[in-house]
Automatic annotation (TrEMBL), chains A, B:
Its EC number is 2.7.-.-. Keywords: Kinase, Transferase. Belongs to the SIMIBI class G3E GTPase family. ArgK/MeaB subfamily. CDD domains: MMAA-like. This is LAO/AO transport system kinase. PANTHER family: METHYLMALONIC ACIDURIA TYPE A PROTEIN, MITOCHONDRIAL (PTHR23408:SF3), METHYLMALONYL-COA MUTASE (PTHR23408). NCBIfam families: lao, PRK09435.1. Pfam families: MeaB (PF03308). GO terms for molecular function: kinase activity. It comes from Metabacillus niabensis. It comes from the Bacteria.
């Protein structure tokens, strides 16, 4: 804990800026909490901090990591993160916190999920609740990335669960997207989530060790076969499947080599910067649509009437177009 | 022309209802024009008509047909539609009108695109402009389907081009979705649009005739191979690829057999009705979001300020969250 007194007084924008730029982890964590707050006073302060930090141009690579439960995301990030930290990189992990997902009743916090990495002086781990349909990503994850970069972290790992639209949301905020998979029963490729294959820049067949190695190699070939039919997400970059093991650390360096190659290629072809600009643009328009829709659905009169309209639509008593317009008028004539 | 005098007086809601329920094609066409109109007086009248017609429960099957330009969509619909009409079905086609897409400068209208079908007494063809990013589908297509069904059409074919989000939009308004493909150069499967493979209930390898037949059979096998890896859109229904030729009408009856089997399966498993209810629900919420977003982007002050905000975001002068909220307040405080 760099300065325990920070807890006990009201922090100013300048305190945050100074702390973050000095790489103070407590300050970074507090700033993220501020950003995540729904309190409007906090929002304004958080936005000021971000706007000042935005002017700090720092180089970083943002890597999204996804995979269904059981593929070993935490073990992989633990190993991969330590590998990077040991090379001298500063690594921030925006991770899913399974303990906060009530229904699963998991008792592991992130400290134990990524035990080695959590202790490394070059790492910063920020857990997010895994509940909701965003699978650990939230609307403030992009702002959190900016804060971490300003604090000097040069590799940002964004973990997400293969739930709902989470992968698409994360794909839109990272430079490189990695899909973790494992071998399974013979026809396990069939259980891949719809659309997921079109997102990654790299597929890693995890747990390729011991008795599992042979099967992992076969699975890797199957994925490589399948990737032939997929339009790559990143123009001019052909995604491939590789094997890796977090236990014996096999394949970890190869993954980093591929990411470096990707970074070089996308920077030389200007895809890297163009994508980041487009992501900002999409972020703005997504946020506008999301906020408009939130305000609509939270509106008291809309809330009160919506169900009645829905019932009448299903019963064929009311047309969908007329219902939509009446509800929108209800909202707009009393929006403030 | 059933009654040319209809053109010359102002039609009342009752005239439309009576005409449509009697299967009067001119009235149906006029009602669709009313539905498609942006005039608010027309909108109200159209909604009244639809609300009255909604109470008429008519059995129908809605079939979406997609495929990139060159696969022979119009020839296929011409042949398939005639096949159905000759069996006694009444077939409505909501088709793309290539002649209205200015940039392509096509001179073929729908009458010539589907020459045989257009002349058949059991058919009704309604062209839509193919411009815009919806590839021939428009926001009023769902209402048009309702009108056609009320007029007694029991097979509704919705044609769409493989452009933008059109397939997803059409998938959300039909019971059965058919993807037309053709053979090409060896690696032509690679050129399939991202995500498209996960939508169809059936893939038809078209132009499987003459010298092309052998290649078409190979292509069919390749698609069937590939479909093994795809999570089917309709639970419990495994999509397959079949061959067809519109020239010698081979495979056309098989396609109809498959559609019948699909209809039986989805009705017995209650997927059919459940999907239609969900589609209505999704339609309402899509429409609300679309309308909110339209009103936002058409708002004069938003229009005036948006570019300035976007520039400042890219330059790093302004945060995305703050920009979104400021723009929304601009809109909501002056929404009417």
């Amino acid at each position: 804990m760099e300065d325990y007194r920070l807890k006990n007084r009201d922090l100013e924008v300048e305190d945050f800026i100074e702390g973050i730029l000095n790489g103070n982890r407590v300050m970074l964590a507090k700033a993220i909490t501020l950003v995540e707050s729904n309190n409007s006073k906090h929002f304004l302060k958080a936005q000021k901090i971000i706007e000042i930090l935005l002017s700090q141009k720092k180089e970083s690579i943002r890597i999204g990591i996804t995979g269904i439960p059981g593929v070993g995301k935490s073990t992989f990030i633990d190993t991969f993160g330590c590998f990077l930290c040991n090379m001298g990189y500063r690594v921030a992990v925006l991770a899913i916190d399974p303990s906060s997902q009530v229904s699963k009743g998991s008792i592991m916090g992130d400290k134990t999920r990524m035990e080695r990495l959590a202790k490394h002086p070059n790492s910063f781990i920020r857990p997010s609740p895994s509940g909701g349909n965003l699978g650990g990503v939230n609307r403030k994850t992009r702002e959190t990335i900016i804060l971490c970069e300003a604090a000097g972290y040069d590799v940002i790992l964004v973990e997400t669960m293969g739930v709902g639209q989470a992968e698409y949301v994360v794909r839109e905020m990272v430079d490189f997207f990695l899909l973790l998979v494992i071998t399974g029963a013979g026809d396990d490729l069939q259980r891949i989530k719809r659309g997921i294959m079109e997102l990654p820049d790299l597929i890693v067949v995890h747990k390729a060790d011991g008795e599992n190695l042979e099967k992992a190699i076969m699975t890797m070939h199957e994925y490589n076969q399948m990737l032939r039919y997929i339009t790559p997400y990143t123009l001019g970059w052909t995604p491939q499947a590789v094997n890796a093991s977090s236990i014996n650390e096999a394949g970890i360096d190869e993954i980093w080599t591929i990411i470096n190659k990707f970074e070089r290629y996308t920077k030389e072809s200007n895809i890297f910067d163009k994508r980041r600009d487009e992501q900002k643009w999409n972020w703005l328009h997504d946020l506008i649509k999301q906020e408009l829709s939130d305000r609509f659905y939270q509106h008291p009169q809309v809330k009160q009437q919506l169900e009645i309209y829905e019932e009448n639509i299903i019963k064929g008593k009311k047309s969908v177009s007329a219902s939509a317009l009446e509800l929108i008028n209800l909202f707009l004539f009393d929006a403030k």
